[in-house]
Amino acid sequence: MAQADPVAIARYLTTFQDVAAARIDSFTRYFWMVSSGMLGMMLVLGFNLPLESLAGALLVLVAALFPWYLWCTGKAKGLPIWPLFTMTAIWAYAFPLVFEHPIVVLFPPSYQFVGALTVALALGFGTLAWWPQVRHRQLPPVAARMLPMNSGRWIFWGFHVGALLFNLAVYPGYLAVDVEGFAVVRGVVLGISTLSIFYFGYQHGAGVLNGVERAAYLGVLIASAFVTFTGMLLVNGMSMFLTAFLGYGLGRARIPWLTLVVTMVLTYFANLGKSAQREQYWSEQMWRPVALQEYPLFFVDWVGHSVQALADEFNKSTEEKKEETMSSKRLWERSSLMHLFLYIQYATPAMVPHLNGLTYSHIPELLIPRVFLPSKVKAHFGNNVLAVHYGIVENSEETQTSVGFGFLNEGYANFGIVGTFGVGLLLGGLLGWVTRISASVPIMSFRFLFAVIVLGGAFQVEYTAGVFVSSIFQATIALGGIALLFMQTFRVRHAFMVLMDYLRATAAQMPEEEPKRKQPPLPAPAGRAIPA
Predict the structure, then answer these.
(1) 366 contacts 470 by C-beta, under 8 angstroms
(2) How far apart are CA 118 and CA 264, in angstroms?
(3) Minimal CA–CA distance to 406: which of 341, 345, 450?
(4) How many CB atoms are closer than 10 A to CB 515?
(5) No. of H helices and E strands in the chain?
(6) Cβ(169)–Cβ(185) under 8 Å?
(7) Secondary element (H or E) of residue 67
(8) DSSP structure string for 461-509
């Protein structure tokens, strides 16, 4: 009969809900600390604002934090996918109200309150659809597709390094990006990259990685992010870091405050010099690859532009800063979505009609590979339709500019307030279902890894439905290939029962004065050996 180490098997069979349950006290403490800080900041910033604006921001804050309260206190099980989505509403809808976004302030305070109330209710409806699916602890499934216990980690190392090699081929221009099928390949690589970063981030937080593995994981992560920075779009690299922070925080049950703050400061510093860097390297081209041999000078130039921009900021007068903020920056493309929501609410249907589902109509064809449907639209079709419909871009700019609208804004543009509430319900229910099916399966299983992919899309605040479905679909194709090539069917429920019986019997036989006595090897559960 096959023999196995009980500690290794216990770790292999660990589910996320088991790990989270052991860290409830830490999660609860951090929830109250962070939520109290956000509340205090909003009250200070909104002290001189109209009551309606402050009240609206607080409504959104409460609606966004309530799912986190349920999860951090252990009342909700599984991955915090819906709470992560609602958290994005804080900076997308609540902060613009108290920070006096220059477009938001153009709307009357009462109008701002109505918009914030609509967003808060949509989040509330989503929570109502999510909560029944995550409130109870789930039993493990009878069987699940899982990566082998010993070789599974090496597969993730291959994904992690492979994503770096792919970026080193694409961003310096060695691999053509305008060929047929490249978008699918990029989506697949992005999916496996997200999986590997979350997996090793989680393992890092849980203390499973040794010193060499930690150094290798962080080195490849930082290198891959910096390669994407040569495209002068910070969002791709920052998404990698956010995924790593999320995995580490969930595994450690502690927020890496110092690293997080340093990363945010460096991001702000890099963003200061981004425009000047684009002017220097892009010239009249929209984008050109930066060769590998240019990397040292490229980043030196970027630091120089950021230092100069920072010095200019200190030397500007208050009036100059206000004038620059109002006129030279493209406010439509900021991370805020509240100004867009208020504008859509104002213009529809008084100035432009509802779209009645037009931006959703193309979603089915996004699931068909382009080789079978060469004429299918791009994933950003919905964004472009919305931007043209509301006069944000001209038709001539449609293929060059993509404005992020977000799920709730898209719902209102299509069906009004009913659409916004409906999006909240459907999205909360969908993310709740993904959470439920992944809560009781081991971390190396297909279900859990699929939930990680969905989790990666949940904090993309500007996604519309088409972009979300397309990105999840492409990453799921990659995961499906992994399942076919590397995963094996494992009798999860039976293995859990055997393991629990063994551990209970061992604990009962162990004398109190010898708590650290070496345990005998655990027989593999009958019917299916542990995948090795």
Answers:
(1) yes
(2) 30
(3) 341
(4) 8
(5) 22, 4
(6) no
(7) helix 51-72
(8) TT--HHHHHHHHHHHHHHHHHHHHHH-EEE-HHHHHHHHHHHHHHHHHH
Tens of pLDDT along the chain (532 residues)? 344 455 555 566 666 766 667 678 888 888 999 899 999 999 998 888 999 999 999 999 999 999 999 999 989 988 899 999 999 999 899 999 998 888 898 999 999 999 999 999 999 999 999 999 999 887 788 888 887 766 677 888 988 999 999 999 988 888 776 666 677 777 778 888 888 898 888 888 877 788 899 999 999 999 999 999 988 878 788 888 888 887 887 777 677 878 888 888 888 888 888 878 888 877 655 667 888 888 999 999 999 988 988 887 777 655 554 444 443 344 333 568 999 999 999 999 999 999 999 999 988 888 887 777 777 788 788 888 998 899 888 764 444 456 788 999 999 999 999 999 999 999 999 999 999 998 888 877 899 889 988 988 887 888 899 989 988 888 888 888 888 888 888 877 766 666 666 556 665 665 554 444 444 444 444 334 444 4
Any residues with CB less than 8 A from the CB of 5 and at least 6 apart, and which? 521, 522
| Tokens standing for residue 480 | 């499906």
How far apart (Å, rounded) are the C-alpha atoms in residues 421 and 432? 16
Exposure b/e, 400-435, CB count within 10 A at least 16 = b: ebbbbbbbbbbbbbbbbeebbbbbbbbbbbbbbbbb
SS3 labels along 204-252: HHCCCCCHHHHHHHHHHHHHHHHHHHCCCCHHHHHHHHHHHHHHHHHHH
**For residues 150 and 11, what is the distance between their CA atoms, to the nearest angstrom?**
12
Backbone angles phi, psi at 145, to 5 degrees: -80, 125
Question: Torsion angle, CA of 528/17/481/531, rounded to 10 degrees?
Answer: -20
Phi/psi of residue 523, each to 5°?
-65, 140
Return the amino acid letter for 162.
Answer: G
Using DSSP, state whether 453 is helix, strand or coil.
helix
**Quick check: 437 and 447 in contact, CB under 8 A?**
yes
Residues 6 or more apart from 13 whose CB is under 8 A from it?
442, 492, 495, 496, 499
**Amino acid letter, residue 44:** V
Q: Report angle CA 106, 108, 114 to the nearest 5 degrees.
A: 120
Tell me if the pTM is above 0.85: no
Instruction: Tell me the C-alpha distance between 236 and 187, whole Å.
Output: 12
